[in-house]
Structure formats: C-alpha cells, structure tokens
Amino acid sequence: MVQQIPETSTNIIYPESDGQPMADNTLQFRWIVTIKENLEILFSLDENVFVAGDLLWYPVEGKPKVCQAPDVLVVFGRPKGERGSYRQWEENNIAPQVVFEILSPGNRPQEMMRKLLFYQQYGVEEYYIYDPQNVEFMGSLRVDEHLEEIENPNGWVSPRLQIRFELTENTLEVYRPDGRKFLTSVELNQRAEEEYQRAEEALAQLEEERTLRQQEQQRYQALIERLREQGIDPEQFLNG
User: pTM for this structure?
Assistant: First the structure.
C-alpha cells in the first residue's frame, strides 16, 4: 500500500514558468519591453516600487494553480529585487496595483475575460490592454470591488503611475509625468549617444578655450619679459 503524503505549504511547488512564450511576435515583445523598461526608468529612484515583465503572480498561498503572468506588473510598496515569481503572501500581501497586457493575434476574447476577472478578484487597481497591430487601447479602473472600463482612454493619466496615454492613428504614445515620451531601447540608446556626443563636443570646446587662455597668458608673459630686457618696467604701465 502506497502511503499518501499530505500536501502542506512547505512542499507545494509554485512553478516559475507557465510554459507559455513571453510574446508571440516581435511587435508584441517590443511593446512589452518598452513599457517595462520605461517604467523601471521612471521609478528607478524609488526603492519601494517593483516592476516586472512576464512574472508569475500567485495571489493565494497553497493554490499554485491560481496564478497569472501579466505582460507587465507594477507593485507599489514592495522593494526592488530579483524574484522567480511574485508570491503575494511573501510580499506583505500586497497585490500588483497596475498591470499591462499587450495583445497578439493569438489572444482570444475568452482568455482576456478570464484575465479581467482574475485581476478584478485579486485586487488590481488599473488594468491596461494595448493591441499594437490594430492600434487599440483599453483601460479599466477599480471602482469599489469591480474593474470598470475607462470610457475615453485617449489622453488618460494613470492615477498610480501618473503617465499619460495618447492614441494616434498609427500607434500608442506614452508620456512620463515630465512630458518625456516612452522610448524603445534603440531610441534610448540613440538619445544616450546624442547626449554623449554633445558632452564630448562641450568638453572639446572647454579644452580649446583653456588652450587659448594658456596661449594668451604665454604671449603676455613673453611681452613682459621683452619689456624688462629693454629696461622698461611693466609696472609703470599697469599702475599708470
């Protein structure tokens, strides 16, 4: 007779992967990375804002099948750091307040409804969905116990993140509180290269000005020496 070992909280396994790909295509992947990385930059100085992409979130201890892996999640009140999964009971029972889903052609309405109900049940405050292929943006905001659809998400400012969403004819643009736009990693690198080039040019100009000042000083000293060699006291001109 095989003895059954009772399942306890100490031997329950919470997988760190759901076996699903992070993205179905390059466009979806680029958007996931862009949102996640720009949010990391935005909150880089706040040690108590945790941002992650495609991380399994387990809201209930002892129920490993109750989980979801948002494309991007943001948790206020939890420290930055590496995690294999987000186990809510180990995080002061703080649920992610903001989640993002980036759609691909493989997403089905039933799947998105299940995600909506999951996020609604387990405490998400803001839920944003972007379909980059059809350029469609949707959002939901918690009102009491429900996530209610934002009627006009174009121009919407996230209460938690303070970022602004602008839907154009061709794409979604996201702006930081200071008005700067979210950029892709390539655009961020280009911007950094431009800043580096400007800094190098400014440094070169300062060096050139320093060299000119040294040359002027040398010419001045040479003139003083010539005057002295001719028996002329330069102090007479300086004090005259």
Answer: 0.77
